[in-house]
Design a protein that fits this description.
Elements (H helix, E strand, L loop, with lengths): L7 E10 L11 H8 L6 E8 L2 E11 H6 L3 H14 L3 E9 L4 E7 L8 E10 L16 H4 L10
Antiparallel strand pairs: 1-6, 2-3, 3-4, 4-5, 5-6
């Protein structure tokens, strides 16, 4: 698994949760990859196609203590706040990596039996290609943290 995530152009994700946690930790591909590198039990599951791209599927777990140690001071402080409030101590993950060692899909979930249930899946659909973004009207924008009870702003970034 590689730490190569700069240049992400497009991704889409879904979050299913029964507790309040800031989704911001899951929308940063570089941070996600750093967290995954804390795993001590990652194993190859097999070959699969994700979004039309051939990938290698890996799965594993990581402890939040080990994962947080991989982050810079600012990243660690923000992640500790979000994950600490949620009471996570261990997370399961699956990651699908393409032939260029880029993540194509990442799923992170709480283990069964955890105090709170959370599952996040992000599909990375393009890397290093030009994009054109039209900001939607304010009435169509919300902060993911608001949807989860995290108290963000209802304004575009």
């Amino acid at each position: 698994m590689s730490d190569r995530t700069s240049g992400v152009t497009s991704y889409r994700g879904t979050m299913s949760t029964s507790m309040s946690v800031s989704g911001r930790q899951f929308d940063d591909p570089a941070l996600n990859t750093k967290l995954l590198t804390a795993s001590k039990d990652v194993r190859q599951v097999g070959q699969e196609t994700v979004g039309g791209v051939r990938t290698t599927h890996y799965e594993g777990t990581y402890s939040m203590t080990d994962a947080l140690a991989k982050l810079s001071g600012d990243q660690r402080a923000q992640a500790q706040k979000s994950f600490g409030e949620a009471g996570f101590d261990k997370l399961n993950f699956d990651v699908w990596v393409d032939g260029r060692q880029l993540p194509r899909r990442v799923t992170v979930a709480t283990p069964s039996g955890a105090k709170a249930a959370m599952k996040v899946t992000i599909d990375y659909t393009a890397f290093n290609v030009p994009v054109s973004v039209t900001v939607p009207p304010k009435s169509q924008v919300t902060d993911g943290a608001d949807m989860l009870g995290g108290g963000g702003q209802n304004t575009p970034g």
